[in-house]
Specification:
Length: about 80
């Protein structure tokens, strides 16, 4: 193989290192965004689950899959179903 006098191995390596550092920085930023979105989504799912399946307390029946939730409040019967 004939060596190329215009090829600078050090400059090429530095350029590849710089590109790798930029890619790593973008990856870290995307990961941080994904973690923040995951936390928000987990909070929303937990909140929705608490609304559908409230804690078992006196006067509140747990919602079974495919069933209606019936609450007995102040002597009145109210039905809540999944929408």
């Amino acid at each position: 193989m004939i060596p190329n006098p215009n090829f600078d191995a050090i400059a090429d390596a530095e350029e590849r290192i710089h590109c790798a550092e930029l890619a790593l920085q973008r990856t870290e930023e995307m990961l941080a965004e994904n973690i923040a979105l995951r936390r928000k989504m987990r909070c929303l799912v937990d909140t929705a689950n608490r609304e559908i399946n409230p804690p078992a307390i006196k006067g509140v029946a747990r919602l079974e899959p495919g069933r209606r939730l019936i609450r007995y409040l102040s002597g009145q019967r109210r039905q809540y179903s999944r929408s």
